[in-house]
Design goal:
The complex is a heterodimer of chains A (about 170) and B (about 250). Chain A has about 170 residues and is mainly alpha-helical. Chain A contains nine helices and no strands. Chain A folds into two domains: about 80 residues, RNA polymerase sigma factor, region 2, helix turn helix motif (Rna Polymerase Sigma Factor, Chain: A, Orthogonal Bundle); about 70 residues, Orthogonal Bundle (Arc Repressor Mutant, subunit A). In chain A, about 70% of the residues lie in helices and about 0% in strands. In chain A, helix 3 crosses helix 4. The longest helix of chain A is centred in the last third of the chain and has 23 residues. The termini of chain A are far apart. By secondary structure, chain B is an alpha+beta fold. A seven-stranded antiparallel sheet of chain B has the order 1-2-3-4-7-6-5, sandwiched between helices. The longest helix of chain B has 23 residues. The relative contact order of chain B is 0.09. The chains are: A mainly alpha (about 170), B alpha+beta (about 250). The interface between A and B is large, with 51 and 43 residues.
Chain lengths: ~170, ~250
């Protein structure tokens, strides 16, 4: 029984430790906090591994990492503005100006800074979609929201990231 | 579809998250609308930028190591049983393998450099902090902690409570230093943690004086035939030792 759990844990969770850490680190912006959050999440995952029936270990583990990151955040930074601004505001399709945007060349440092400047609720959308390449359905499972929310938040996150990229360029 | 309709679906389109019918409609619109094509290009470029250029934070090795040890088989050695989370078992395993590795090193070299024992103490200290703090006996009561070690170690250490001196006792656990069983006493100093490793004098030659190791201090003293090694990132270790010695003076 115990050996089975361990084996399942190794197959389901271990491949996603780096993805978990990257997500936690992006949300918490601190190495030690991220490490604590992922460590706690991994223990939770092990405890819950027998109840995990799904096939998508990555989304499952990341959702646990996300929850434990939010716990750390609530403790350490209760004032965090999760999404920055209203949920339903309609983005202007011409911000930033596409022509200007496509002319620029952004270096790695600037991209990292721009991403880091986003509120956590938007940053995680970029990380899950662009970096981890997850489908909307998987992202919905990670953030425990309907797909419609994934679409609107991701769109908002991209607009803000583009605006930040332009902003940091100045 | 007009530009507004296309724009509202463009993210999902770029992500391949749209049904075939609407996908076709969008493609039709794009073929005739340079502006929307450019917007799509911006979307794709944004994703590429993040993928190619944003820093990806890989989990540190010790975290990966620690997580891969979760749920690992119990060690063969008979250890007292405690009702503790998996992480504690991992720590025991880790200590055991550290001890084994250390014995190997000791076997292959006749003289062990002082440096490595100091490094081991520091890494024991750090490991104890990582595993969300492991106590075999979490207790601030010295009358609980001290008897706990009896029967597990043949050198029951002094366990003073130094709360009045600003170093409250948090608990104790069994640890291994240089392959020998050792008592680890855990004290707090504000937000800092102090691990005191206690072992018989003859077994290990420890660093004699306070020194820094990656921001950690190690301070050693001997009393009643035992060696006490305090490890912490607080620089109040000399005060701690003095308080300890005062409290344990006959």
């Amino acid at each position: 029984m115990r050996r089975d759990s361990k084996q399942r844990f190794d197959t389901v969770v271990l491949p996603h430790v780096h993805a978990g850490y990257n997500l936690a680190r992006c949300l918490l912006r601190n190495d030690q906090d991220a490490e604590d959050a992922v460590q706690t999440a991994a223990i939770r995952a092990f405890q819950g591994i027998d109840g995990f029936r799904g096939s998508d270990g990555k989304a499952w583990f990341l959702s646990i990492v996300r929850r434990s990151s939010l716990n750390v955040m609530r403790q350490k930074h209760p004032q965090t503005n999760w999404e920055g601004g209203a949920e339903d505001e309609i983005p202007d399709p011409n911000t930033p100006n596409p022509e200007q945007f496509l002319m620029k060349s952004f270096d790695a440092d600037l991209v990292t800074r721009a991403l880091d400047s986003l509120p956590p609720g938007l940053k995680e959308m970029i990380v899950l979609r662009e970096v981890e390449g997850m489908a909307y359905k998987e992202i919905a499972a990670v953030i425990d929201h309907p797909i419609g929310t994934v679409m609107s938040r991701l769109s908002k996150a991209r607009r803000q990231l583009q605006a930040q990229l332009m902003e940091q360029m100045r | 579809m007009n530009c507004d309709q296309v724009c509202s679906l463009l993210d999902a389109f770029a992500d391949g998250e749209i049904d075939a019918v609407r996908s076709l409609e969008i493609e039709t619109h794009l073929s005739g609308c340079a502006e929307c094509r450019q917007r799509l290009e911006v979307l794709r470029a944004t994703g590429e930028l993040v993928r190619d250029k944003a820093v990806y934070f890989n989990a540190p090795d010790r975290l990966v190591l620690s997580i891969s040890g979760i749920g690992a088989e119990k060690p063969k050695r008979s250890l007292p049983r405690f009702n503790r989370p998996q992480v504690a078992w991992f720590a025991v395993n880790l200590c055991a393998s550290a001890a084994a590795a250390f014995l190997l090193i000791m076997a292959s070299s006749t003289r062990r450099p002082t440096q490595s024992i100091e490094a081991e103490l520091v890494s024991d200290h750090i490991r104890s902090l990582q595993a969300s703090h492991i106590f075999d006996v979490p207790s601030s009561d010295r009358h609980t902690v001290k008897p706990w070690f009896q029967g597990k170690l043949d050198f029951p250490p002094d366990v003073p409570n130094l709360a009045s001196a600003g170093f409250p006792l948090l608990g104790g656990r069994l640890d291994y230093v240089a392959g020998h069983p050792a008592a680890a006493l855990v004290y707090a100093r504000g937000k800092h943690t102090i691990n005191v490793f206690v072992l018989p004098i003859s077994q290990v030659s420890t660093p004699s004086e306070k020194s820094g190791q990656g921001g950690y201090h190690v301070l050693e003293w001997t009393e009643h035939g035992l060696t006490y090694c305090a490890v912490s990132d607080t620089d109040a270790l000399p005060n701690f030792r003095d308080a300890f010695l005062t409290a344990t003076a006959p």
